[in-house]
Design brief:
Elements lengths: L1 E5 L17 E5 L3 H10 L4 E3 L3 H8 L5 E4 L8 H9 L10 H12 L3 E5 L13 E3 L2 E5 L18 H8 L10 H6 L4 H11 L18
């Protein structure tokens, strides 16, 4: 199974994938230091330093399963709440998120999932499911899973390193931001299992944003 892992960062989503299936992973990450970290952690994966958004457009036909996690800060509730107290400037939501969802819906013949954070606005396209703190858009059914909070508001670098399995000692990255952005490895394997049909099949599961809060 050929998997494209876009905006790969540290690979929190793919941390347990080798326990799930015989797979061939291509990871795309723009930041060279993060790409180096990913390659150190996953030496068998092909790691490409490139613009993930453009790479998807150019190479989507080469894969069976695509996971995309476009940048989330412009969509997050944390940024919206921080306009006053943190002095952040308002910005346009980055529409690459919806561009990729629509593109994959219309053009991709394999299985896909696009993941982001709960936005401060009503999603422009209804998510397939809400899993932990992540709305996801996919073309396969995903059962809900109960996961503990990853405590992104008040957690510590040490705690996040333990929960994600990544030790960033000695690496020149913003550890707090990078670790907060990680998808739970348990959630990553749960979603891949669903794509492989290892969870009970049924109607597409749709969850309102309000029901998950």
């Amino acid at each position: 199974m050929k998997i494209l892992n876009l905006y790969a960062c540290l690979g929190g989503n793919s941390y347990k994938w080798d326990e799930v299936a015989n797979i061939e992973v291509t990871a795309v990450e723009w930041d060279e230091e993060l790409a180096r970290l990913y390659k150190e952690r996953f030496p068998n994966d092909k790691v490409i330093v490139a613009d993930a958004h453009q790479y998807l457009l150019d190479h989507y036909k080469e894969f069976d399963f695509i996971w995309s996690s476009p940048p989330c800060p412009s969509h997050s509730k944390a940024r919206y709440w921080g306009f006053g107290k943190n002095g952040l400037q308002p910005c346009y939501p980055d529409m690459k998120l919806y561009e990729e969802i629509i593109f994959l819906q219309a053009n991709f013949k394999g299985l896909y999932i696009v993941e982001n954070v709960k936005p401060y606005y009503e999603p422009l396209i209804r998510p397939t499911a809400i899993l932990q703190r992540h709305p996801v858009w996919a073309n396969f059914a995903i059962e809900r899973i109960d996961l503990p909070s990853d405590n992104i508001e008040w957690g510590t670098v040490a705690g996040w390193q333990e929960s994600t399995g990544f030790d960033l000692t000695g690496f020149d990255v913003d550890k707090r931001t990078v670790l907060r952005n990680c998808v739970s490895p348990i959630l990553g394997s749960h979603i891949l299992n669903a794509a492989l049909g290892k969870t009970p099949k049924g109607e597409q599961m749709l969850f309102d944003m309000e029901a998950s809060q």
